[in-house]
Automatic annotation (TrEMBL):
Gene Ontology BP term (one): fatty acid biosynthetic process
GN (gene name): acpS
Lineage start: Bacteria, Bacillati, Actinomycetota, Actinomycetes, Micrococcales
Major localisation: cytoplasm
The name this protein goes by in its record: Holo-[acyl-carrier-protein] synthase
Known catalytic reactions: apo-[ACP] + CoA = holo-[ACP] + adenosine 3',5'-bisphosphate + H(+)
Organism name: Microbacterium esteraromaticum
GO molecular function: holo-[acyl-carrier-protein] synthase activity; magnesium ion binding
Length: 120
């Protein structure tokens, strides 16, 4: 059963200006592994984290650096959650998070579906 969805769109150039103006933003928003990526990929990951917060219905107990977007060998993105963020997801009964991201024409987008398997 779907219990939440979230979508977010980021203007890559605007995101890049924000990071240039406030370099510590990278430390507040991204894990060390994510910080090594190109700006357009960071913008898509920022959108994914925002979309996750929307799918969860709010940010209580959720911390940006406890959300990492990693890629499977196939390239498919997925969330790696730690700390209280992982606890919040578990407490809300979510046992699957589906994520898709894209970037093109100066925009980055992410869509998240939070799902719970109902007991039969």
């Amino acid at each position: 059963m779907i219990i939440g969805t979230g979508i977010d769109l980021v203007d890559v150039a605007r995101f890049e200006r924000s990071v240039a103006r406030t370099p510590r933003l990278l430390e507040r928003l991204f894990t060390p592994a994510e910080r090594m990526l190109k700006t357009r990929s960071l913008a898509a990951r920022y959108a994914a984290k925002e979309a996750l917060i929307k799918a969860l219905g709010g940010s209580d107990g959720v911390y940006w650096t406890e959300i990492e977007i990693a890629s499977e060998e196939s390239g498919r993105p997925h969330f790696v959650l730690t700390g209280s963020t992982a606890t919040v997801v578990t407490e809300r009964g979510i046992n699957a998070l589906h994520l898709t991201m894209s970037h093109d024409a100066g925009l980055a987008i992410a869509y998240v579906i939070a799902e719970r398997a109902d007991a039969e």
